[in-house]
Design brief:
Layout lengths: L1 E5 L3 H12 L3 E5 L3 H8 L10 H10 L3 E4 L2 H7 L2 E4 L14 H13 L4 E5 L7 H12 L6 E5 L9 H6 L4 E4 L3 H11 L6 E4 L1 H32 L3 H9 L20 H14 L5 H25 L6 E5 L15 H10 L3 E5 L4 H7 L3 E3 L3 H5 L4 E4 L4 H4 L3 H7 L4 E4 L6 H6 L3 E3 L4
Parallel strand pairs: 1-2, 1-4, 2-3, 4-5, 5-6, 7-8, 9-10, 9-12, 10-11, 12-13, 13-14
Bound molecules: uridine-5'-diphosphate-xylopyranose (UDX) (2 copies).
């Protein structure tokens, strides 16, 4: 199948590379010339394990190419995946300007039957609007179908999540489009769920909102554990063995961040509101996520008593491990709050320093965790990168002014940390 991907960001690039890997011919379009220049040299502009090798393999075999020319992309393809970003407006609503713009461009340049697949996260009923837009600008009355096929990939494991996905959701309204979509997705071997377009659109928001709810639930629980002396990890483990609950996404911490959960929860509240339903549950999920970070900052401040002029070391900046993504990273409000109190901040992250530097001022970036610990009055663990789990804690303790470690991700064993001579605080334990 000949496929065009419009928008070669986190989602579009991974989708394009993986579709070429299973044998399709893929052309990826983007209007960012800097990004394209890198992609054409086989350089992946983001840190995503496994992506660059797969991309090089498929560009070299001729299955994958990059261009800024949307007309070329549309005309070479049977199917067009729309993967442009849908950023939040200040009121939480998704901004669909790029989706609308791309729909118009496709409409004006298509010359034969096309399936237009929306992969961007969009509010329910966007498919209808995209179809209306295409009809309006499709002067030659070319036949087309609109399909919704949301993505569920996680940054850091995006390739694996796409190649070996739990399920593939396809929302459509006729057999012709179904045949095309099955042909595209069958090589992945994942269960395919065919629904109507609106349901597919809702599955994406419902899934992300549900996962965010799970995280806020366990974070709320962590507060009960702190007040009662129970251990949130043990409670979550005991709950997770129940198959109906499941073990994943029950890690208490400093709340969810990233490009999706905060944006999608806010958008879903807004969508519900516009449809006449007050989604109070999700409003509380958001509130718990905000308070979790505020309590963590308070915990650091209370442990240090006076923060002013103290050097605090930050371990991890990215919103989660195995990515360089700083979108809605909890490290930003934590560092800014401590700086406001007069702290000096040193930090290390294996991948995210370049992006962090665009968002933060007056941070001393170090080359490794030991340099962060050197002369620090406290260490704050924000992102649970694997390498932090393997630190030589004896060495860290000796390098610090005071061995205080405040762990926002429950990465370390509290008993061992105390044995190692640390004043150690974590979440709900
Ligand atoms: C995606 C989805 O599309 C979004 O809806 C979802 O919620 C999160 O994942 P993402 O891939 O993270 O967004 O966005 P981004 O990395 O910003 O990539 C979007 C790309 O589209 C950029 O490379 C941008 O240059 C490109 N773009 C945008 C176009 O090529 N044309 C446009 O008109 C707008
Ligand atoms: C998410 C969804 O998982 C994915 O299906 C969707 O397509 C895009 O959004 P992503 O944002 O890349 O993926 O990361 P994810 O692994 O889901 O983590 C999101 C946030 O939740 C991170 O800040 C992470 O630290 C936090 N989290 C996750 C927890 O605090 N506890 C958990 O148990 C799991």
């Amino acid at each position: 199948m000949n496929i065009c991907i419009i928008g070669t960001g986190y989602v579009g690039l991974v989708t394009g590379v993986c579709l070429s890997e299973v044998g399709h011919n893929v052309i990826c379009i983007d209007n960012d010339e800097n990004k394209l220049a890198k992609l054409k040299k086989n350089i992946v502009p983001i840190y995503e394990p496994g992506l660059e090798d797969l991309m090089r393999k498929n560009t070299q075999s001729g299955k994958l190419s990059f261009s800024s020319d949307i007309i070329e992309g549309v005309n070479l393809s049977d199917v067009i995946f729309v993967c442009v970003n849908t950023p939040p407006k200040p009121n939480g609503q998704a901004d669909l300007t790029y989706v609308e713009g791309v729909a118009r461009e496709i409409a004006t340049c298509m010359t034969s039957y096309k399936v237009i697949v929306d992969k961007s996260t969009v509010p329910v009923k966007t498919g209808e609007k995209v179809a209306e837009t295409i009809k309006r600008y499709n002067k030659n009355n070319i036949d087309f179908d609109v399909v919704s096929s949301p993505e569920f990939l996680r940054e850091g494991s995006a390739v694996e999540d796409t190649i070996k996905s739990d399920r593939i959701v396809i929302g459509l309204d006729n057999k012709r489009a179904e045949k095309v979509m099955r042909e595209i997705y069958e090589p992945f071997g994942a269960p395919i769920i065919i629904t109507d377009i609106k349901s597919a659109e809702l599955i994406k928001h419902a899934s992300n909102a549900f996962l965010a709810t799970k995280i806020s639930f366990v974070n709320a629980l962590s507060n009960i554990c702190e007040h009662s002396g129970a251990n949130v990890e043990e409670v979550a483990l005991g709950m997770g063995f129940d198959k109906r609950i499941g073990k994943s996404f029950l890690n208490a911490g400093i709340g969810y961040g990233g490009s999706c959960f905060p944006k999608d929860v806010a958008a879903f509240i807004k969508i519900a509101d516009e449809l006449g339903y007050d989604f109070e549950l999700l409003k509380t999920v958001e509130k718990i996520n905000r308070t979790q970070i505020e309590s963590f900052i308070k915990k650091i401040e209370e442990t240090l008593w006076v923060v002013k002029d103290k050097t605090i070391g930050i371990l991890g900046l990215a919103f989660k491990p195995n990515t360089d993504d700083m979108r809605n990273a909890p490290s930003v409000p934590i560092i800014q709050a401590l700086q406001q109190e007069g702290a000096k901040i040193k930090a290390y992250d294996p991948q995210a320093v370049e992006n962090a530097n665009l968002l933060l001022d007056n941070v001393i970036y170090c080359d490794n965790p030991y340099d962060v610990a050197q002369d620090a009055e406290a260490l704050v663990l924000v992102t649970e990168w694997d390498e932090f789990a393997k630190l030589d804690m004896e060495k860290i303790r000796q390098l610090m002014v005071h061995p205080i470690l405040i762990d926002g991700r429950n990465l370390y064993d509290p008993e061992k940390m105390v044995e190692n001579g640390f004043i150690y605080k974590s979440i709900g334990r």
